[in-house]
Design goal:
116 residues, alpha+beta, Trna Endonuclease, Chain: A, domain 1, 4-stranded mixed β-sheet, 4 strands, 19% strand
Length: 116
């Protein structure tokens, strides 16, 4: 993970944890972690959320990351990808208001990458 992505994770977590709406923690992947698990997870306004964080110009989520977002969305969680603090808060605000991204969206992203 790049230094820029680490800083972005920290900024997003700080914004969420200081918002009065939720709590966020960083998923630490690696050798013994779950591959593809979204970077940040927690609770926002009483709803579970999972957000994949990418820096600007840092590429798109992998097919496995899309699959994980699809599974969490199907379970009822707020899911999304964010490249900034504002985007992350936007994902959480729209999801907690009932406009959650459906699992079919993440499934389609994965299919477009050639992984069904």
């Amino acid at each position: 993970m790049s230094k820029a992505e680490t800083k972005l994770h920290e900024a997003i977590m700080r914004a969420i944890n200081n918002s009065g709406h939720g709590r966020a923690v960083k998923h630490h992947g690696g050798r013994f972690g779950d591959a593809g698990h979204p970077d940040l997870y927690g609770v926002w306004d009483g709803c579970a959320f999972f957000v994949e964080v990418k820096t600007r110009g840092g590429g798109d989520p992998t097919a496995l990351q899309y699959r994980q977002l699809e599974l969490w969305a199907a379970a009822g969680a707020i899911t999304g990808c964010a490249r900034s603090v504002a985007q992350a808060i936007g994902v959480l605000d729209s999801g907690s208001g009932g406009q959650r991204i459906p699992a079919s969206f993440w499934r389609r992203c994965r299919q477009l990458q050639g992984d069904s």
